[in-house]
Structures are given as C-alpha cells and as structure tokens.
Amino acid sequence: MKVHDKNCQIQVQPLGGFDQPLTYVTDQKTISSLKLGSLVRIPLGKRKVAGIVWSFDQHEKTDKFKIRRVLSVIQFTPVITKDLMELASWTSKYYACSRESCLEAMIPTPIREGMQAKSRRLLSLDRSNSNQVSVSSRATAQLKVIKFLSERKSPISATEVIKHTSTSPNTISSLVKKGLILESSEIIDRTAYDDEFMDSADQVEHSITLNTEQLKAVKEIKKDLSEKSFKTRLIHGVTGSGKTEVYFEAMENVLKQGGSVLFLVPEVSLAPQTVSRLRKRFSSEKVVVWHSHLSSGERVDAWKSLITGNSRIVVGARSAIFAPLSKLRLIIVDEEHESAYKQEDTPRYHARDIAVVRAKHTDSLCLLGSATPSLESINNVRKGKYGISHLRNRVDNRELPLIHLVDMRREAEKNRTLPILSQSLIEALRERCANREQSILFLNRRGFNTTMLCPDCGHVETCKNCSIALTYHKTDGYLKCHLCGYRKPAPRQCKECKSFDLNRRGHGTQRIEDLVAELLPKRTRIRRVDADIMTKKNLFREILSDFRQGKIDVLVGTQMIAKGLDFPKVTLVGVIDADLPLRMEDFRASERAFQLLVQVSGRAGRGNRTGEVYVQTYAPHTPSIQYARKADFEGFVEEEMEMRQEFNYPPYRHLIRHLFRSRSEAKVEFYTNMWASLVNKNIVGNITIKGPAPAPIEKIKGYYRHHLFYFTASVKKALDELGKLRRNFPLDPDVHDILDVDSYQIS
Ligand code: ADP
Ligand code: ZN
Ligand code: ZN
Question: How large is the angle between the packed helices 633-646 and 375-382, nearest 10 degrees?
Fold first, then answer.
C-alpha cells in the first residue's frame, strides 16, 4: 500500500455541472508539477470532465476510499490567473450565479476543452554542426534543403521548406535525425493586431501639451499609483475635456513600471478612435482588442498573448474585464455610466463594479471616467470610497454648445398632425447645409413610433408572443417584433375599425431620413445609423469614417451615436424626442434622460466653432431636461439623489430583481404570489420587498414573466436569507426563477 500513501489530495473545480471544488487524489510526482489553475481530466459521476486545480488544501475528514483519482493532466500551464480564480468565486457569490458561468466568461471554450494554441514547426540549419556529420553528395534532396536553409538567417516553417525545395517530409526527418537541422515550434498568432481600427483621417497625431486641469489629474493619479495599493478614482470631465489623454499618461506610468493595463469601453466598434489613438501612442506594445466579433481562434490567441504576458494592454467591451492579464496594475472604465456595462444574461455582472473588485484583489488602481458619472459612483465619492479628479473645461477652453429647448406642444398647435421636426430645427438644418457644416439628428430608439397606429381608433398592432408593439419596416413592408423576431406582412386595413387610413410613418430613423431628404436641398448627403447597421460592423465603421472626413452632411441615428464620438466639424445636434427615456417605467429614467442629453450635446462644437443643440420635447420643464440644458451636473445630482434617498432606491440601496418565467401563465402567477407571501412572512432585517407584478413585457418567446424586487443595504445578507427560504420552496418544475443583482434593465 506504499503507492497509496504517496497519493496527495487536490481540490478540483469541475467544468461541467458541479458548482464547487471537489477533492481528488493524484500521485506525488504529478502534484509537484501541477499549479493552481492547471487543467486536469477527472471523473464526475459517470462522466469524464475537465476541471481546474483550485487548491492544494488537504481535507482531513474526507473518507479516503471514496476519493476518486485524477484521470490525466490536460495541461500543467494554468488556464486562469490566481486573481481571476478569486474573482470567479466573488462574482458567483455576489451575482447569485454559478461559478462555472463565470469561468466560462473568463476562459475561451477551446482552452477549457484542452485545445492548445495552434503552432507550426520551424526549421533552421545547425550551423555549429556539433555532430560532425556530412551528407553524401548523392543525397541531392538533402543537399537542396541544407542549401536552402543556409541562405536564411532565421528559422523558417517546415511547410515552406518542403514547398520551396520540393522535398518530402522524410528528407526533413532524416536531416533532423542526423542533427544537421534544428527543429523548433512557434505559436501561430491570430490576434487581430492589424490596422482595422486605424482611421486614415486621424493618422497625424500632433504632440499634445496637457492643460492645467489635465496635469492636476495626472498628478493625482501618479500619487495613487505610487502608493501601490487598491484605489478607485473617478475622472469627472466634461465632454471633450481630454480625459483620454489623462488615461494615456496613467497607462504610460504603469507600463514603465512593468505593469499591465485593462481599458474598458462601452462598445468597441464605437471607439475606433480610442483604439487607434492607443495603438499610436503605445506603438511598441501589442495592444489586444477584445470584442464580440473575434473568431474563436482569434480569441484563443488574444487570450494566450495576455496570459503569457506577451501583451500588456487590452482594450475591450464589458467581457474584457475578465481578460487574463498578469501583473495587472491599472483598470480604466471609460464612460463608466453606460448601461452597456451591465450584462443582461447569466452571469449578470456589471463590468464597472467588477472592475473595482478586480482592482481591489490585485492592488490596482481603477479609473472611472465620464462626463455624466452614475449616481452610484457619485455616491461612492461622497462616502469617501472613491477619489475624484475634475476636468471642468473643454480642451482649449472651447465653449459648450448652446442648447435650445423646442416646445413641441406649441409646434403641435400650429400643425394639425403631430410634427416630427420643428420649424426651428428645420431652419437650423438648412443653415448648416448652406454653410457646408455637419449635423447630427438623434433619436432615442430604433423604430420608436413606427408602430402601426390607427389614427381613427388608436389600435396598435402588437406581437402575439411578447405583448409589445410591432415595428413597421419600410424596406420589406413587414411588421416585426424586436424581442422574439416574429414578423408578418403589414395589414392594409385596421383590424378593429376597418379603417384604411393606417399611420405607419412614425418617427423611425428611416422616417426621419426620408423627411430630411425632402426638406433639404437635393445635394445633401444623409446617412442613417441604427441597430440594423450596427450588425454590419464594417459598414458602421465606414459610415463613421465618411462622416469624419466630411463625406456626409447629416447623420441620423439612435443612442449609439451619442456615445463618446468626436466629430470636430459638427455644429448642430438635433434631439428629436427628449422625453422617451422619461416615459419608461423606471426610476432611472431621468438619470438616463439627463445623461443622454449631456452626452449628445457633447457631440456638437468640438472643432473651432461653437455648436448648437435643439432639443425637442413635450415636457420642457422637466428638471432633468432643464439641468441638462444648463449643463448643471451638480444641480441634477442634488435633486435626483433626494428622490432616490426618499424612496430608498439605488444608490442608497441595492436593487435585486427576482424574475419568474413559465410557459404557463397560471403557474407563474400562482408561484410568484406564493413566493412573495412566503418572503413577506419570513424575511427579517433590512429588506424591502416590492411586487409581485407582471413584468413590463409580460411575455417573451412564449414565456410569461412575473417579478418582484428586493431593496437592501447588503446584497450578501439578502441573498443568504432568500437562499435559505428558496431551498425549501417547492417551485413547480415548469416555473424558473432568476435573480438579477443590481438590476438595470427592467423589461
Ligand atoms: P474626452 O475623452 O474628455 O471627451 P479626449 O481625450 O477625446 O476628450 O480629447 C478630445 C480631443 O482633444 C482629442 O482630439 C484630443 O486629441 C484633444 N486634446 C486632448 N487634450 C488636449 C490638450 N491638452 N491640448 C490639445 N488638444 C487636446
Ligand atoms: Zn382602427
Ligand atoms: Zn415578440
């Protein structure tokens, strides 16, 4: 039984259906080469699955004979960094999701399945010829290979050698055997380092001298970095105040000290300028761009490049927060207020919040930047958790644009039908066209109001699966559901009152594009950007690039063109309907409306001319609109915070949404109610419960949805209490429930 004595225990986190590490044994020799994060194959029930070596702790009490043996080692080199292992545990606890779902977000599938990076065989001549062998002059094929290799300074791939010398793999093998040529291998790197993000329009980078405010922020950041411990700092800088230059200084500092940097942007395809500026500024670094369009091979290579320390900068959207950087020292979250940072699928994490936690685990500095910081971050500054640096002025002291509020109620009086574009906005557009200046027309949502409304009886065509209005698409004459994809030909007659006078015009981006084309001179070049175009990544980039180069006069688009774009020649921004975010049933509605208006206004007048913004609204006196007009961030925050505090809304409490779904409407309603009365009776402590209620969208893809909300000061305590109750709650197998911690999108 000597062999048995040498067995050592390890804890392995299975990948495939078990949510905590299990004890396995393996021999001492293997264990001495295993590392935290090594990938092994283990038995799990009747299956064989991959697993990650999670710890080397010995569990005294476990029954030795029941412990199973590690089957094999897939790879000794860790597939995850130590800090990410810790982060996976934290994320799964905080967001009430499985640890495995977090690991899936961290490790690309091929790596989890044990696939190695693709490599190729390289050959070179052994110039020392230490074996003193020679080739017979009759072995022409071998001589050819040696001659070919002797003419090359660096190793060359075996495939190339075979191709150029028309020899066989056998010839190569015998030369290798003789020791005349050397073999090596090289990992093929498919990382997207190419210049797809290079924008010809801004190739010329003039050297920039930081202004006083920027210098002050940089000084504060350098001080944070010199302390070499965890810190979060909010960079509150108005649009165009040069935040990016400040981030770059911080990055340079960190790279010089051998650290690496994670740079988050809300959406990579919206940040081509940031990416190309990064590449130019850090041209000696391999900047990894991490985005959703990466092929599986590219993702694996990008991942390898980071975990091996080959690349020290990664820029990407929210999922990049889990990129395996070693020696992480700095995390930057640009436009930290953006809701795109919240993942609406399991694991339902918020990348900004994870950024702060990851910085804490790695003793890094976390920089959050925005012109309109979230109330969550402002609250953390007030509580002294975050530091803050202000950039109150635009670069070169350019003026903020002039904002005009257009009261659409008055426009409606003048006009019998509801107007889409006000007279003043139309005139402003015409003026820009005459002066050959650029304009942006901004609409809150794709398809908004392109619903099929009957002006006689008010009937609206809705989706049979989702209980939301269908949207009319002019291109093919279909009505479509944006949630489930249901489509049907647009009817010519109202289903209810049989009227033929159906109004299918509405305010869609397409409708605005048509209208502008009618109103402006023929030569005006108009382009539209909406979610349809976003799916064609190159087209979107092309449009933005054309616009920047002045090949487009008027750009019409949805919120995606409000995010951080910098177009110096734009002097007019029109906001078609500022009220929509206010009409949504959501306590964050005014915060969203405010952010949107300020961000959109920031698009105007970035060049040498002061910009003008026209905001069309049916509610001009709404505080968020008034504060946005005056660019009064502090005023807005004061008023909004008071409301949040009064109702115990975030950021004063955490909001957890508990969603129940079922194909059976009766069951989902019954169980949601039953659960609600159970928690109401049993939950003690500081949790406020709201609901149950049908979700705003009651039915999605055939599933009925009901939900309730918990407001709590401590997510951990609330989840503990709810978990205890939930384990003994007899939920019908036809009903499923999901927790959404720090919920954003309530649909
Ligand atoms: P923000 O991220 O705050 O909107 P950016 O960093 O993108 O601002 O800067 C806006 C523009 O101003 C960029 O084109 C940038 O190159 C330029 N810029 C930034 N700082 C300076 C400076 N100190 N002097 C001149 N131009 C600057
Ligand atoms: Zn009708
Ligand atoms: Zn639908």
Answer: 90
Choosing from 239, 245, 264, 397 the residue with most ligand 1 atoms within 8 A of its CB, the one to mutate for a pocket test is 245
pTM exceeds 0.90, yes or no: no
How many angstroms is it from 516 CA to the middle of ligand 2? 29
First-last CA distance in the chain: 62
Give me the count of residues in the chain: 747
Averaged pLDDT, 441-450: 60
- What is the identity of the amino acid at 356? V
Answer for the pair 386, 373: CB distance below 8 angstroms, yes or no: no
Q: How far away, in angstroms, is 242 Cα from ligand 1 center? A: 4
- Using CA atoms, how far apart are residues 430 and 695, in angstroms rounded to an integer? 44
Among protein residues, the one with the nearest Cα to ligand 1's atom 9 is 242
* 4: CB partners within 8 A, 6+ apart: none
Report which ligand 1 atom has the smallest distance to the Cα of 244: 6
Give the C-alpha separation, 569 to 547, whole Å: 9
The DSSP secondary structure of 404-434, one letter per residue, reads EEEEHHHHHHHSSSPPSS-HHHHHHHHHHHH
What's 342's DSSP letter? B
Using the structure block, give the residue that is written with the tokens 């979700």: 695
Paired strand residues for 687? 712
Please name the helix (run of DSSP H) or strand (run of DSSP E) that holds residue 296, with its range, or none.
helix 296-307
Q: Tell me the CA–centroid distance for residue 709 and ligand 3, in Å.
A: 25
- For residue 210 and ligand 1, the question of a CB distance below 6 A is answered with yes
Indicate which ligand has the atom closest to the C-alpha of 697.
3
Pocket mutation for ligand 1, best pick of 244, 390, 393, 606 (most atoms within 8 Å of C-beta) = 244
d(CA 543, CA 201): 13
Per-residue tokens: 507 = 């305010």
Number of helices and strands in the chain (H, E): 25, 29
Which ligand 1 atom is nearest residue 238's CA? 3
> What is the SS3 assignment for 46?
coil
Rounded CA gap, 565 and 202, in Å? 13
Long-range own/partner contacts, residues 106-110 (CB < 8 A, 24 or more apart): 106/80, 106/322, 106/324, 107/79, 107/80, 107/303, 107/324, 108/296, 108/299, 108/300, 108/303, 109/296, 110/296, 110/300
The answer, yes or no, to whether any atom of ligand 1 lies below 6 A from the CB of 240, is yes
Percent of the chain with pLDDT over 70: 84
Residue range 376-433, pLDDT digits in tens: 999 999 999 999 999 999 887 777 778 899 987 777 666 655 578 888 999 999 999 9
Task: Mention every residue, 6+ apart, whose C-beta is less than 8 A from residue 733.
Answer: none
